Amino acid sequence: MAATKKAVLGPLVGAVDQGTSSTRFLVFNSKTAELLSHHQVEIKQEFPREGWVEQDPKEILMSVYECIEKTCEKLEQLNIDISNIKAIGVSNQRETTVVWDKITGEPLYNAVVWLDLRTQSTVENLSKRIPGNNNFVKSKTGLPLSTYFSAVKVRWLLDNVRNVQKAVEEDRALFGTIDSWLIWCLTGGTNGGVHCTDVTNASRTMLFNIHSLEWDKELCEFFEIPMKILPNVRSSSEIYGLMKAGALEGVPISGCLGDQSAALVGQMCFRDGQAKNTYGTGCFLLCNTGRKCVFSEHGLLTTVAYKLGRDKPVYYALEGSVAIAGAVIRWLRDNLGIINSSDEIEKLAKEVGTSYGCYFVPAFSGLYAPYWEPSARGIICGLTQFTNKCHIAFAALEAVCFQTREILDAMNRDCGIPLSHLQVDGGMTNNKILMQLQADILYIPVVKPSMPETTALGAAMAAGAAEGVGVWSLEPEDLSAVTMERFEPQINAEESEIRYSTWKKAVMKSMGWVTTESSESGDPSIFCSLPLGFFIMSSMVMLIGARYISGNA
After folding, report:
1. How far apart are CA 143 and CA 11, in angstroms?
2. How much is the pTM?
3. Which pairing describes strands 422-425 and 446-449: parallel, antiparallel, or unpaired?
4. Mind listing the pLDDT tens digit for each residue in 110-130?
5. How many CB atoms lie within 10 A of CB 528?
6. For labeling, which of 35, 85, 315, 404 is most exposed (least CB within 10 Å)?
7. Domain Carbohydrate kinase FGGY C-terminal, which positions (predicted)?
8. CA 459, CA 12: separation in Å to the nearest integer?
């Protein structure tokens, strides 16, 4: 019997999208930007102490291999020849820190995730050494001194993990964010693996000078981090090395972007003033500021947006970062058990259509932009005996929208020209109630692409456009038109402002809940002093009571 003829689709490009909650591998047609197939694997998060968030680097790596293999199997079932995959791009959760042994290839400690708070005392001690009239850390990096970024995580590992200390002393240690770890492993690991990162990921370490585009000696000395462990910094679009194993062995890895920069590229925000908001584990609003660094006066970060080729110019962005967005849905599922799957949140919220005066501030890792307040913790307030799990679900979705409103307001003040609409992407944008709420709370239209996988698309575009690959044109006239879904505000401006001002009252009440000592002690008893600690206990009573009051528990 004759073999089935494979479909001819022209050059294809794959993208690894390694996020905080899951890993995916997606394959796109480089001529049409059509998504052909993908596979996803959820990633475990470990919480060994209060405020600590870790992941297993080897689990992350194996999830990438699994996603690649499964996606290739699906393409074969579709009669699509995987030999047409000409390049692979990598997009990753940023700031998350890995230190590994270059001789054995083994991680020396778990990955310390960007949400982790263990370094708060390190941050406070370091801040005392920065002159008030010369914040050289922020002027060089565009970042505030915060637990969020990689440098303080590396400093903690050097101070507290003997395996890391010993490996550095013996010149065996390599440091990298998740992109560096993956590229090193995928290109051979201990057998010639390439130790590199790109400018977007480097700009999130607090060790990288965003003006000179180099690791900064003064910053490395300030954080006492040896420069010999740092990866080589490359552009976001060039061939770094070849896949050394698996179904795609020999395919070049030629694109690398931190996830939020990848989404900016995938949304085709290539012009000064274009912006996008991504709804993932956190929520991240980026505005392209062109070839100039714009420093915020309203709590936003200045960061590298992309550099799409070794000889191409660097572009910058202003960023508003929200720590908890999709993570609040996962918390409702895993910690409170009021939903069995993340998709159920929309159904619960739809049942009531209101939070009934309940407000949720999910400051599980403190507050990021525009407050940068590490002492904040999550609160749910405005509860009555009528409140049930549906109202809490609705309040959780509203919280994501209110946090976006805060960073959008800051962005508008910094840029001087308010956005006329908001381009959105990310997994949460499939929730239509969330998108309508967002339009209502911002009081501007929200515009969503019909293919929401813009983070992976951006990584694929960078990979396909790389010199030596050249299968994806980034010229404006060659970019595929994208079908959009539009959500218009459906409430009046006065109601929108009242809800927003009440939210801001709740935010103020979330601050000042923990001290440095309690946040780092790891003593489980401190959780009972937090408002959500109390809420977890009292909510059980509330939900049982709600069964009799409203029948919705």
Report:
1. 39
2. 0.85
3. parallel
4. 999 998 989 988 998 898 888
5. 10
6. 35
7. 276-466
8. 13
